C-alpha cells in the first residue's frame, strides 16, 4: 500500500468519513461506553457489573453489522429512546482540528467533498446541525441509503454505481482499518488512514496504510500540491450540489 503523498491537483473527489475524520470520535466513545450503559442501568435498576457485561455481549454480537449503527435497533434493545439521549449528550460533539480549513481548501481547488458515513441518518443530522459542517460538503451519503455498511465488500460496488466517481481520481479518508481494507479490495488506489480519531487518545498509525494524526497535516500537503498555476491546470467544474 502506497504511503506517498497524494497529488491533490489530480484528485477530483474526496470521500470523507465523519466520526474520526471530520468529527471527534470522543463523542461516540463517550456515548456508547458510558452515557448509554449508565442510562440503561438507571432505567432498569441494574448494577454496573451486570450492565457492562450485557453491553459487552450486545456489542460483540452486532459489531460489523448494520444494526451496530442503527439507533432505532438500539432503542428497541435498551427499551428507551436512544436518539433522545444523543440529543441530551450533544454538547460532547466536536469538530476535529483542521476539518473546516481542509474542506475549504478542497472547495477552492474544485475537489468534490462527499461525506461517506455508516452513521445512522438521525445521528448524522444531529451532528451536522451541532457542528455546521454540512455547509462545507457537496454531497452526503449514509450507509443506510445503500442498506449496507462500509466494512462489507458489497458496499463499494453499490457506492460506485450510486456516485459514479472516477476511481483513479478519488481519495478515501477513513479512521477504520476495516473500511480501508474493504475499499482496497474494491480497487481503491488512494487510501488515507487517520491515526488519531479520538482527540483524548494517542495516535495509532496503521502499518498497512499511510496514516496522519489529523486533517491539518493533509492540509499542509494539499497546499504544497502544484495548484495555483505552478504546473497543474485544475479545470474540473466547481461542485454545485447543496448539502443534504
Plain-language structure description:
The protein has ten helices and six strands. The protein is of the alpha/beta class. It has two domains: 8-24 and 94-224, HAD superfamily/HAD-like (Rossmann fold, 3-Layer(aba) Sandwich), CATH 3.40.50; 27-91, no CATH class. The protein is globular, with a radius of gyration of 19 Å. α1 packs across α2 and α5 (99-108) runs parallel beside α10 (215-224). Residues 227-244 have low confidence and may be disordered. It has a six-stranded parallel beta sheet. The relative contact order is 0.20.
Brief summary of the model shown:
By secondary structure, the chain is α/β, with parallel strands linked by helices.
Report the CATH superfamily of the largest domain. HAD superfamily/HAD-like
Query: What is the level 1 CATH name of the largest domain?
Result: Alpha Beta
**How would the global form be characterised?**
globular
Binned strand content: 5-15%
Indicate how many domains the architecture comprises: 2
Provide a count of the helices: 10
What share of the residues lie within helices?
A: 40-55%
Q: Can you count the beta strands?
A: 6
H-E order: EHHHHHEHEHHEHEEH
Round the Cα radius of gyration to an integer and report it: 19 Å
Known CATH architecture of the largest domain: 3-Layer(aba) Sandwich
Spatial gap, N to C terminus: 33 Å
Mean pLDDT: 90
Question: Per CATH, what is the topology of the largest domain?
Answer: Rossmann fold
Largest sheet, in brief, is: 6 strands, parallel
Low-confidence stretches: 227-244
Largest sheet strand order = 3-2-1-4-5-6
Secondary structure class reads alpha/beta
